[in-house]
Specification:
Length: 249
């Protein structure tokens, strides 16, 4: 079953906050160590975290068409009719077919408790879609187009970065992490009466993204305003492990 944040027709405002599920929070402290390899050279090992933020340039809108009836065939036909109407409206709004994909489709028997027994109560069908937009600012207008033309549910909105922009911001986060690593290594070297002569090895650890997700939805009292989306920046966090060559005492 497709899961998400649900809203009924007439949604006028989406309040969004930064989602941090699975992300690694940046830390001000970096773990570090000095070590002496067998060959006699000295090294300083440092782990550091860096981050970068960017305005979302991509939106993923999740909507669903829902139908109920005592006859499963009627449910199927109703879903097909409303999906066709919704997709036509999205096409007129400039959304191409390859920007829309089905993420869930099911028609299932529903039941109700009656006299202590579980009895059939008709059928319910759901056809859920994911709409990917290259212009995040259009998310509200696309939600309005979908809800006004067959969509019964808004399951969520995610404002994020395109693959190209994500690579660019990831590189910024890695550069920030490397700067932090060198700054920490310099402090360690100074404290140990060592001088850094270069990088012995470097590797990257986890890189996490914190897209902006819809957390709560509320309806406009007058029901006349279009859907509005408040957005914050998408944060990218990167970790690096760097070993520096050093000379000295």
């Amino acid at each position: 079953m497709y899961k998400g944040v649900f809203a009924t027709v007439g949604v006028a405002l989406l309040l969004v906050t930064a989602g941090c599920v699975g992300s690694v929070a940046p830390t001000a402290d970096a773990s570090a160590q000095t070590q002496q390899p067998d060959r006699g050279g000295k090294t300083i090992g440092v782990s550091a975290t860096g981050q970068a933020a960017a305005t979302p340039d991509q939106a993923v809108v999740r909507v669903a068409v829902v139908a109920s009836d005592d006859d499963a065939n009627v449910v199927r036909e109703s879903l097909a009719e409303n999906v066709t109407r919704m997709r036509e409206a999205l096409g007129q709004a400039g959304v191409a077919d390859d920007q829309i994909r089905t993420v869930a489709y099911n028609i299932e028997q529903e039941y109700r408790e009656e006299g202590g027994e579980r009895r059939p109560a008709g059928f319910r069908g759901v056809h859920a879609f994911e709409i990917t937009l290259s212009n995040a600012s259009r998310a509200g207008a696309i939600i309005d187009a979908a809800v006004s033309n067959g969509a019964d549910r808004v399951d969520g909105v995610e404002l994020t970065l395109s693959e190209e922009r994500r690579r660019e911001v990831r590189a910024e986060a890695l550069r920030d992490a490397m700067d932090s690593a060198r700054a920490n290594a310099d402090v360690i070297a100074e404290s140990a009466n060592l001088t850094i002569t270069g990088v012995h090895s470097a590797s990257t650890g986890d890189v996490s993204y914190s897209p902006v997700r819809a957390e709560s939805l509320s309806a406009d009292a007058a029901g006349q305003s279009g859907t509005q989306i408040e957005s914050g920046p998408v944060t990218v966090v990167a970790q690096v492990q760097v070993t520096y060559n050093a000379t000295g005492a």
